[in-house]
Structures are given as structure tokens and as C-alpha cells.
Design goal:
The protein is an all-alpha fold. The protein folds into two domains: about 1-110; about 115-275, no CATH class. It is about 75% helix and about 0% strand. The chain has helices spanning about 5-20, 25-55, 60-85, 90-105, 120-155, 165-200, 205-210, 215-240, 245-260, 265. The longest helix has about 35 residues, at about 165-200. The chain is globular, with a radius of gyration of 19 Å. The two termini are about 20 Å apart. The model has no long low-confidence stretch (mean pLDDT about 85).
Length: about 280
């Protein structure tokens, strides 16, 4: 079921690349249309999986990645439609396509652990996935800001300068994405702590629940990510860290978020293994 969204995302990625090279408005509209269809089909897939397991499908790692990709695609579409700026699609779609390959190849099965049957848990995970999607946008915006900045610094106003938004627009977009991501990450962390306390009381013998602490790699990286983005928000508001410094912080923070979301999730034993 995840193959069709992948194919549509791939087609959109090609269209965005052609639009970026040629700056043809008609190709840009085609790219947006393909991405919109991909997101709609992906919505249908996730809806079917939700009906199958009776909750949003993300306790299985591959389905969590699929849900993250869906949220990232929707977040970027919102950004594009509200700014009428399509040049970022060539940078966002490779992330979307690369991650969607995982659920397309390894779809996995949802395992319903009774300990996860809690509204607090679903709010916790949903908030974190939306936060990571926002951080992905901010990370890509940070990279493109640096590309634009280097061309201007070298006084070589060439390929990227004529195709990317101005530094001011990139900085504003980055600021909004980081702020939204930080808000949902904070909600996810707080709700996760509440859920853990309740779940431990209900299942005192569950080894995963008892092992949840800062010694757990996944929890430690989540808190480290929160610290990085908290500093980014604080530094922008009180220390005037905008522009290049903000771009670097959002890029580093996204690297931490993806390290926690993929390598640690798949290759490290953590207390968050419920399947």
C-alpha cells in the first residue's frame, strides 16, 4: 500500500527538480499537483491502516516512518501554498522519497501492546512526529540558507541565488518551523512523562516501562534534541541569533532528531520497543 505514494512522491520530486532548473511555472504547478495527489493517496493508506488497527499506525517502526513522511509532505504543502514559493520542493522531496522507501520495502505489522492503549500515548507520539516533520522543514531551510549565504558572500550571484528565496524569507520560514516544532516537541515530552507515570502504575512489572529514564538512548537523544531547539528559540529571541547561526542550529538539531528517529529506533535496544 505504501508503494503508490512513493511513486507519486518520486514523480513530484522529478517535477520539482525540472522546475528548479528551468523555473517554468507550469512545471511547478505540475509538481505541486503530483505532491498533493501523493499526500492524498498517503492519507487514504494511513486511513485504511488506522481502521485496521483502530488507532493511528505508528507503534511499528516502518509505519511510524510512513506517518512521519505523510506529516512532512502535508507540512511542506502548507508552507508552499501559503508562500507561493516552490523552490524548496527540490530539497524537501528527496527526504520524503528516501524515507518513504522504508515502509514501501518493509511495511511491517502493527502490534497492539495493551500498555499502549492510552490517549496519552497517542498524543505523545503524534506530537513528536509532527515536531520532527517541522524540524525536517527547518533543517532543509537551514541548509538552503547556507547555500544562498555562501553565494552572496562570494559575490557569485549564480545558480542558487536566482532560484532560492531571499535570506530574509528563508530565515523567517526557518524561525516559524523551529518554533512550531519546539512547541510540539515540548508537548510530546511532557505528555510522554505523564503517560509513563500512569503506565507504570497500571503495569508495574513491565520491564520496558521500568527502564524508561535518561539512561535510555532514545529518551536521552529526545531530551538532547529538546535542549538544542530550546536554545535555538531562546537565542533567537534574547541573543539575536538569526540568519546563519539560526540556520546552523536548526541543521544540527535536525541531525539529532533523525539520529533518534531512525538509527536508534532500528539498531539500538531501548525501552521504547513494544513490538
Amino acid at each position: 500500500m505504501n508503494t503508490l505514494p512513493l511513486l507519486l512522491y518520486a514523480a513530484a520530486g522529478v517535477a520539482y527538480a525540472i522546475h528548479f532548473a528551468r523555473r517554468d511555472p507550469s512545471i511547478g504547478r505540475t509538481a505541486t499537483t503530483l505532491l498533493l495527489f501523493g499526500a492524498l493517496v498517503h492519507t487514504f493508506v494511513i486511513g485504511m491502516q488506522t481502521m485496521e488497527v483502530r488507532h493511528v499506525p505508528f507503534t511499528n517502526p516502518s509505519r511510524a516512518v510512513s506517518t512521519f513522511v505523510w506529516l512532512l509532505a502535508l507540512s511542506y504543502l502548507y508552507l508552499e501554498l501559503t508562500t507561493d514559493e516552490r523552490s524548496m520542493g527540490v530539497f524537501i522531496l528527496p527526504v520524503v522519497i528516501g524515507l518513504q522507501v522504508i515502509p514501501a520495502i518493509y511495511p511491517g505489522m502493527e502490534y497492539a501492546d495493551p500498555v499502549l492503549d492510552s490517549a496519552w500515548f497517542w498524543v505523545h507520539v503524534s506530537s513528536l512526529l509532527f515536531a520532527y516533520a517541522s524540524f525536517a522543514l527547518a533543517g532543509v531551510l537551514g541548509v538552503t540558507y547556507m547555500l544562498q549565504f555562501k553565494e552572496i558572500k562570494k559575490k557569485h550571484l549564480g545558480y542558487f541565488y536566482t532560484r532560492l528565496p531571499s535570506l530574509q524569507i528563508l530565515d523567517v520560514m526557518n524561525s516559524r518551523a523551529v518554533a512550531v516544532g519546539w512547541l510540539f516537541l515540548t508537548i510530546g515530552v511532557i505528555v510522554g512523562a505523564v503517560w509513563t507515570a500512569q503506565a507504570r502504575a497500571a503495569a508495574p512489572d513491565d520491564p520496558n516501562l521500568q527502564a524508561m529514564s535518561l539512561n535510555d538512548p532514545k529518551i536521552f537523544m529526545a531530551m538532547l534534541t529538546w535542549v538544542v531547539y530550546s536554545f535555538a528559540v531562546f537565542a533567537r529571541r534574547t541573543m539575536g541569533w538569526t540568519g546563519r547561526r539560526a540556520a546552523w542550529l536548526s541543521t544540527v538539531g535536525f541531525a539529532f532528531a533523525m539520529l533518534n528517529f531512525l538509527p536508534i529506533k532500528y539498531f539500538v535496544n531501548t525501552s521504547h520497543t513494544f513490538y
